[in-house]
Amino acid sequence: MASKLAPPKAIIFDFDGTLTDSMPLHIKAWIALMHDNGIEMTAEQYWESGVGGKAAHAAIQFMGDHLSFEEGAALADQKEFLYRYLAEHELELIDGADRFLHRLKASGCPMAIATSGNDRNAAFQLKILKLEGLFECVITSDDVERGKPEPDIFLLAAKGLGIAPSDCLVFEDSHPGIMSAHRAGMPVIAVSSAHDADTLAGLAGVEFVIADFNDERLNNRFFAA
After folding, report:
1. Interval 9-27 mean pLDDT
2. Residues belonging to the active site
3. pTM above 0.90, yes or no
4. By CB atoms within 10 Å of each CB, which of 149, 161, 197, 203 scores lowest?
5. Are 65 and 109 within one domain?
């Protein structure tokens, strides 16, 4: 069991792969987009790429650095449309996330989203998952120039909450996201929705790793007297 630590003053959540099991849908959308452009990609190749920031940069990484940022952004818009089409009927929360979020809200703990997705995706996901109104602020890739693994998005979320970065705790699932939070000076609870738990546990700044939000250590960390 994780040792008892003082509760954070605020919690910042990544969205995709952390609160939602959405990464398989994002990967399906990327694979479809690449196929339509004559490039074959597998899920394994996606994960091996290490992408984690702005979708426009990912498109350039996948299709070649001959593309301008504007061309990458246009391709990213196509990918996000494909994702929303898939997600409308398939997107689900990670087990236990709904109850955990509502318990945090009832406790008065300020919460924010810091996602590499864009504004439209974030609003779409909050609506279909019925999470609107739970978060004091929602920061997306549209709000920062540098995406994860740079710390900007988490620092901006802390600023939006009015809480010092060192008093925030982050939930993240990806290597770039965990590095981003660590660079922002925030401890992390990692979610092993897509990556090996032992590998995540060895990353700098990670307190412990959960498979879902039913993990009893969360009760001890946030709600135990």
Report:
1. 93
2. 14, 16
3. no
4. 197
5. no
